[in-house]
Amino acid sequence: MHSKQPDHQRLREQLGLKLPILGFYDAPDPAPFAPTITPNKGACIFSHYTRWLKGETLHLTPAQFGCQGVGKWLCGSQAFSGEKFLNFLVNTEGLKDSHKLMAEFVDNTRPFAMKHGNLFLGPLRGNQWEYLKTVTFLVNLDQLSALSIGAQYHAGVADPVPILAPFGPGCHQLIDFPNLDLPQAIIGGRDIAMRPNLPPNIGLFTVTRPMFTRLCSLNERSFLYKGFWERLCNARL
Q1: Which helix (H) or strand (E) holds 142?
Q2: Cβ–Cβ contacts within 10 Å for residue 213, how many?
Q3: φ, ψ for residue 136 (rounded to 5)?
Q4: pLDDT tens for the chain, residues 1 to 237
Q5: If both were cysteines, with which of 2, 20, 27, 217 could 131 make a disulfide (CB 3.0 to 4.6 Å apart)?
Q6: Other CB atoms closer than 10 Å to residue 1's CB: what's the count?
């Protein structure tokens, strides 16, 4: 694995990315992530979308995590659990057919194990590569298509499945990989509870560090410099 963050400028240019690429970090020191913001109580982390566009980074801790879903899935809080939790998800919001199915999901889904007591979500910081857990692209459907092909570009049939689309809250889809050391991606931003915080044409494509390195290595031999992608880009002019 690379010991430093790979250069992503060429990838940004070929994809036509105008929005920041986000990093999810578990780090000991808030200083390198300044300017930081703390979430309001009960706030979805994606409600800070416009702050990311300004270059600011969301700072999460076990004491300040915004909504209870983030507290449970990212920060290790158990404030939102038990039968009341299941009843809300199944009967109030109708996300699973039964309490049994939802309980199976909850019981078999691992919350993120925070190491340093601080989580950060905001624009990539090149000097914090060692603390980076995942990378998230804010993309339109064309860019999502390109990144999906890019995730398959180096993959063989016997390799781990390159792209996942797990069920679950949008915050957990930022980290819901079986192994962060594998080159994999998640098509995220599909949680309808968090989507009102994003523009309707924007989705998320979250990748592990090994997958980010692969995507940044796409060169002139790849589809990003060939006819299919060029014709698609020209069709949008």
Answers
A1: helix 141-153
A2: 17
A3: -125, 125
A4: 567 999 999 999 999 999 999 999 999 999 999 999 999 888 999 999 999 999 999 999 999 998 988 988 999 876 556 788 899 999 999 999 999 999 999 989 889 999 999 999 999 999 999 999 999 999 999 999 999 999 999 999 999 999 999 999 999 999 999 999 999 999 999 999 999 999 999 999 999 999 999 999 999 999 999 999 999 999 999
A5: 27
A6: 9
Question: Are the beta carbons of 30 and 118 closer than 8 angstroms?
Answer: yes
Predicted TM-score (pTM) above 0.90? yes
d(CA 193, CA 168): 11
Cβ partners under 8 Å of residue 50, min gap 6: none
Amino acid at 206: T
Q: DSSP letter for 224, please.
A: G
Name beta bridge partners: 120: 25, 59
What is residue 187's DSSP assignment? Answer: E
CA distance 152 to 222: 11
* Burial degree of 140 (CB within 10 A; 0-12, 13-18, 19+): middle
Cα dihedral across residues 220, 19, 197, 30: positive or negative = positive
Q: Report the C-alpha gap between 160 and 158 in whole angstroms.
A: 7
Q: Are 193 and 222 in contact (CB under 8 A)?
A: no
**Residue 37 tokens, joined:** 């913001």
**DSSP letter at 190?**
-
